[in-house]
Amino acid sequence: MFLILIFLLGIAIGSFLNVLIDRLPAEEKITGRSRCDHCKKKLSWYDLVPIFSYFYLGAKCRYCGKKFSFIYPVVEFVTGVMFVLVIVWANQTGQYSMPGKTERIGEALLTLHNQTLMLVALLGIVSVSVVIFFADFKYQIIPDSVQLALFAFSFLYLVTQGITPAKFLNQIVSAFLVMTPILLLFLITKGKAMGFGDVKLAFSLGFLLGTLAGLMALYIGFVAGATIGLILITLKMKKLRSKIAFGPFLIIGMLSALFYKIQLVQILRSFYSF
Hints:
The structure is a single chain. This protein is an all-alpha fold. The chain has 2 domains: 1-160, no CATH class; 164-274, no CATH class. The protein contains 9 helices and no strands. The protein has helices at 2-23, 52-56, 71-92, 105-139, 144-160, 165-188, 196-209, 211-234, 247-272. Helix 3 (71-92) runs antiparallel to helix 4 (105-139), helix 5 packs parallel to helix 7 and helix 8 crosses helix 9. The longest helix has 35 residues, at 105-139. The protein starts with a helix and ends with a helix.
């Protein structure tokens, strides 16, 4: 029952993320009611029930009949699933559980407070990741405001893990180290292979994960990007010189390294025998 509530919370948040995905790249205000992009008619609340309204309305606007993008329910569903996975992961790894018996109630409250902040940080990272993934996928733009949000949630997560001034400086150094390969590609290709948004994303990625996991995330991103690129070229959906948004692949690498770092290290070691 609890996970169902988390899923419902996730798809509700996902509905708002759809607004951010469409409005932030266009530098529009994120306040105000949602509207049909075609007829500009403001949508009622019953037109905006996550996932349900999309299929109930036949994937089209109630007023003008214009088809809605399939990405809208996908974003909502993915966000709901990701929220559930975060809770399950946190519980399985022991990062979130009800405090046990302690001699002082203050210790129990402090533990619960820290765990709650950790969950807020992780769910924030996931939410921002969804926005970056689909904004870059749809518009090939990663808004600076979203980049800052990712950095902020990453910092909050590190705080819950007991960050110290020395650890903070180490994470900053890691951020620059992880960013360097992407920055070099950006400079060498003059922005044709990588956008500067990818450079900034790699910085936040390195800050969150550290050097080893950050480079692992880049590796996963490059492998995933190359694989999808080859498939699209083979299917003649893209040409060899076509530009493909790299942000989504960096997000895949980041989340994979964040939640499954130990398993990925074991896989890479067995694959490359090191």
